[in-house]
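Exercise 7. Predict the joint structure of the components listed below.
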Amino acid sequence: MLDLNTKKIKKNAYRVTKVRGETASRIRVPGGLLTADLLPLIQHIAETYGNGKLHLTTRQGFEIPGIKYEDMDAVNTLLQPIIDKLEINQEIPGKGYTAAGTRNVSACIGSNVCPFATYNTTAFAKRMEKEIFPNDLHFKVAFTGCANDCIKTRMHDFGIIGMTEPQYDKDRCVNCQACVKACKKKSVDALSVENFRIVRNTEKCVGCGECVINCPTRAWTRSPETYYRLVIMGRTGKRNPRLAEDFLVWANADAIVQIVTNTYKFVENYIDRTAPGGKEHIGYIIDRTGFEEYKKWALEGVKLDQRTIVKSPVYWGGIHYD
Amino acid sequence: MGYQIDLKKMNAILADLSKTYTIYAPKRFVGDGTFAHIDTIRYGEISDLAEIEFAEKSNYSFKEVLLPISETLFYFTENEMKEADARAKGAIVFLRSCDLHALKRLDTIYLENGAVDSYYKRLRDNTKFILMGCTQSFENCFCVSMGSNQTDDYDAYLKVDGETVLLNSRWEALDDALAGATAKDVVPDFVTENDTVVELPEAVPQALFDAPFWEDYGNRCIACGRCNFVCPTCTCFTMQDLFYTDNGKAGERRRVWASCHVDGYTDMAGGHAFRNDKGQRMRFKVMHKVNDYKRRFGTHMCIGCGRCDDVCPEYISFSNCINKLSALVKEDN
Amino acid sequence: MTIINPYLPFLSEITAVIKHTDIEYTFRMTYQGDVKPGQFFEVSLPKFGEAPISVSGIGDDTVDLTIRKVGKVTDEIFENYVGDHLFLRGPYGNGFDIDNYKGREILLVAGGTGLSPVKGIVDYFSQNPADANGFTLLVGFKSPADVLFKDDFTTWQKNLNVIMTVDTADDGYCGKRGMVTEYIPNIPIKNVSDAVGIVVGPPMMMKCTIAELLKAGFREENLWISQERKMCCGIGKCGHCKIDDTYICLDGPVFNYTKGKFLKD
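Solution:
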């Protein structure tokens, strides 16, 4: 005879599944990177308490299905070394994940591996996870190394797209135009040649770094600072799925972290407590309050880099089914 | 003459020399690489031995000191030409044995093949070369195969050993500066073997120019020219006229490095190009390095530094190409 | 010791401009010094930079430079006119040695602008017909509108056997038509094994013409060609004109065919 508080179960990162008596445990992997030694621990849980199967979630976590509700405590105990190793913030040690609303912070493979990435996406994802988890509010944040956006940040509440500001040393340029061709064919055609030298259209440039990657003489190099494009309020869903729109361009990391944490305060203040399950997505809250109100909260106390462009007002499109 | 001297004292000597000479050495440019968080090691000005990257091979060679990537030759107006000024100071260049051999290749082209290149000569004549030893062979090096692993042809040899500097000087000004240092026999570090061994082809018959062998490179090469730009023996350049006025009668002429792999290298006015196929461009370069140059000047052009193999984004190995070519030549005979 | 700067051009005055076609002009430039047909100058063209231009005529204290308005490089010179100046470097290259051909039976085959580098040879034998044991000039142009040196042809026809043909022409054209190669078999050569053949033109034209001359019995060592390449510095440094161990700017552009046939780009 099961007598469960499903709200608590969900907040402990277990799912109330369609199978009576069975739950599923979700393991967070911030930035999508883990050491392989954790896999046997996950395997052990799946084979001991689950049905021996693992699901890879779209947010780069693991979901272990087929767990009996009565085994949750035992599973939480086995999760502890994984939680420790991945340095997940935890309110009560041994009790598993203490929130689930704020989803795993995901990231593309980033500059550890990918030649296109402008920064270490995993490291930034972990930093963000540390700042915002645990929290019951429904936030989705993703990091991607370049404008290719392989992680699909534009379907997130917050998407962070890496940018580099190309630095041009004209005295190292031989006018081979590899950068011009790459920018035209693979990016936004922001480069042109004037008097054998390259001119970068700074309005157009998306900071993808193709010029740097393709330069054979190191005439193009990366700026010492990494910049980011912060795109906000993308979402899937029944009512109005839409892509995230640019909020900040050429932003610095600290500003982004602060804007995200500020947004929690905004949501706390404006969330519709009467919404089903007390859950309301940020995007819909902003739709209600208006962008200007959100912007006021989001930028509160934020120190922006002088290069940062703030897009205001921001309009979203998407498909309306409502 | 061999010396041992305290590191600090040697740096003081360099500081003194830098009044007359700009000192160039392989240096780490943090984050300046092709990809994020990757460094570039290339030549730059130094004022302290600690700035020199002794532990790794430089990605680019010393040649940019003597042949600037972009060099203004002269300024012109409607009726006059004014030669661009030379650097005010002389230069001291730190480099390895292979690159010292490359220097001879540059000399041959710029001082002997046709008229003397006055721009090269005026820099060359005011440059001193300080040998850096190699205690170990780096990846892709094949200097031993090319006979460039050792050299006697330096103004000085310098090795940093902890807080001590060992020197071997053939340069009077440096000998004078080192007058107070301890005399010591110093023998340069040279490698005597490499992991990569290259067998050079005997004269390559022209019949092999169209061998299917080159087609593979035609499919792989992306014509980026990196192999040429990092090569210490590639000497090609292109002229550029920059105009200050609308009538095009005042401006400057400069030369910039050129690459036989990059589109446009053989284009003539009117648009005809002689080597459109990238495989044939590879053939042209390889033949220059290990066949044609030798026919004209008596030594191979390639000095086996392996930088081209280090840098190729398509993983084309020049050394492996030479070995495959040699095998083909043998087969052909 | 002062080193001579080989890259510094000198100022040369335009003393005459001869228009051949809408896109081809000859500029007569002041120049004092030895120069041979087939040699070239690096000409600084305002707004575009240097271009290697063959010497198309040699006068007392002048050289003719015939420039075709192809590509953006050579457009601008056409804004210059008599009295104006251009900067030149050169002459560069080996050029044709007329002594090699004296006393011989000569067939000179040129295609289009390929006539420029050999025009000095034609001029010489036109003025000194006795120095050759017969001289035939066979020239092909694309169309009647592309014919160069029209006035010179009138002069040449007096002393030399001149055949001029065009690839294509409108119906009313009275002159010869067809490729130069079609005319080679019918040229009367007295002693083909000793006759000299000189061939200059576009790469494909040269290839076909040489094949035809060899077929006709010309000996390889009696054939001479001039190779046009991207000669950027003119002094063996820049590398663009290199073919195997040969620098066209230093060792050429004129080659005996026994050497030239091995030149593979």
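Discussion. The radius of gyration of chain A is 22 Å.
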